[in-house]
Amino acid sequence: MTDSATGGYLVPAALPAPLEGQALLDFLQAVIVGITGLAGAMVRPVWQSEPPNIPDAGTAWCAFRITTRPSDTFPFVLHDADGAGSDQLQRHEALHLLCSFYDLGSGALADGYAALLRDGLSIAQNREVLSRNNMGLAKTGDLVTVPVLVKTRWLYRVDLEVVIRRQIDRLYPVLNVASANGTIVSDDGITRPINVTE
To answer: Does residue 159 fall inside a structural domain?
Structure first.
């Protein structure tokens, strides 16, 4: 593996990596299931390679997706001089999660489950799992009704945007400077050699 002494591209050290891909979707699915009380099979990511069938008429279910992931323009980078040295990178990003709840519109199930998620995220105990994973609730949006035609069947859909902020930490092998040789040229043109050894 390369480090700052060998040159070349640096990859982060093997720290616990932030949740990405399927692991992130599984985590978010568990949060939605836990707060709404919907069965796990009724809370599903929108984009799947083999999408499951639409639940039977009258069954409430939720489809969710991450729509955008804006992040800080410049992450915080701190050099840690302990041992051989390393750079600690910390970045914050927002996961814009769109949760769509469906039913036939007659039993107010979609409205109810969307409201349960919105309100349940206000309870500190429900957010503990976010905190343990370097995440926190930034905001919940309005409930937006969006009737939709799916496979020639009208479904009643309620969308809720949830914004979750998360902290991403990475450790890069940027070593301490052990020695340096060179020349310093001041503004007035005076040249001074330097030779620093640890």
So the answer is: yes
